[in-house]
Amino acid sequence: MTPEERPHVLSFGGVDHNCRTLLELGCSYVLMQDKALVTPYQTGTAHQLILCDYEDVALCVALARVLHARQPFRYVLCLSEFPQRAAAAIAADLGLPTNCESFAIEHTRDKLRFRDLLSAQGVPNVPYRRIGSAAAAEDFRQQVGGRVVLKPVSGAGSEGVHYADSAEAVAQAYAHAAGVGREGVIAEKYVGGDEYSVETISKSGVHELIALTRKSITGFPHFVEVGHVQPWAMGARRQEVERLVFQALDAVRHRTGPAHTEVKVEADGVHIIESQLRPGGDQLWEITRLTTGMDAARETACCLMGLPAPERRPEHACVAIRFFQLPPTTLTREAILAGFAPHPDVIRTVIDKLGTEAVALTHSWQRSGYLMVHGGTAEDAQRLAESEAARLVAHMDSLQGHA
Length: 403
Hints:
By secondary structure, the protein is of the alpha+beta class. It has 4 domains: 3-100, Rossmann fold (3-Layer(aba) Sandwich), CATH 3.40.50.20; 127-189, ATP-grasp fold, A domain (Dna Ligase, domain 1), CATH 3.30.1490.20; 192-305, D-amino Acid Aminotransferase, Chain A, domain 1 (2-Layer Sandwich); 318-401. The chain is 36% helix and 25% strand. It has helices at 16-24, 40-45, 57-70, 84-94, 102-109, 111-120, 134-143, 167-180, 237-251, 284-292, 296-305, 333-338, 378-401; strands at residues 8-12, 28-33, 48-51, 75-78, 128-131, 148-152, 162-164, 185-189, 194-203, 206-217, 225-230, 257-266, 269-276, 318-324, 346-351, 369-375. The protein has an 8-stranded antiparallel β-sheet with strand order 13-12-9-10-11-14-16-15, sandwiched between helices. A 4-stranded parallel β-sheet has the order 3-2-1-4, with helices on both faces. Strand 2 (28-33), helix 2 (40-45) and strand 3 (48-51) form a beta-alpha-beta unit. Helix 3 crosses helix 4 (84-94), helix 4 (84-94) runs antiparallel to helix 5 and helix 7 packs across helix 8 (167-180). The longest helix has 24 residues, at 378-401. The termini are far apart.
């Protein structure tokens, strides 16, 4: 294949794996990326690297028009959440195949529009309301039985999410959610039960459930995710989850690519919390590939390009990840990890953030790092991930005591 024959792809955001996949499929790619997320691999392999503000959709479209005029794109690929609106607008403007179609993106990135659409389509939904003041939130709380969750209409990583079960807590919750400043606040009736994420892939509007993931969260009031284990057996409830998630994906008209849908399962039913048309974050895209062989980036690109679906080759029976919060320190990552001997079944240990002040965990980006492990059963993998994370924190405490 000559350079002129290689499919030319406009790719948005994402990780090195997505870029590597395009190259392995014989594509050249232009990458529109947030400056903070650029890696040496992307700099070295992209046909052109464009640093941009995803929120400025009009500017992204204008840039894409210029690039397309110079060397036409064949596809637009976006597997990250925040660039989706820009990717969808560009694909629509240039008339190109994409996994980000405008209707689907607008009705998942916006949590209020998502809830409105589910209700309009007759998909089971939780009581909700757009909120413009703490007083309105308190009125809603009293109407739905006294327990609510407030969150930004557009947000991710648990940022701005706050539970409330009293008038005082509502005032705090509204201030917290509104302070994020993303398109207003939505209030939802709190539902209990166990929390799962549902990883799916869609091709030409046909959905496939790939894996169920059991989530561990911090609980009240912010529900920050601190662990995942996959696959998780759910018995007879699996069909109920699958049916509801597919109804939601049909409602938003999702046709191509992965989706990551969060649900809660109670004795009386399954409740959709939200759905995003991308692979799961928190390394769930990688965990899903390891346990099922389904590579979301490769399968989505192959679908757009009309290529046969790749073979799925699972590498581990079960994989778990555990996020940890490290205490204040002046130690470096290298110093902490140097004397830590992980269990043989640990796949990776990553420390992302260290600081000299304690941080109260209110959203995902404040977590210090993670351990990923594999095991013969989901329960074994989860126990190992939790114990290894605790051991790492204890190891750091020991270093601090001898500093």
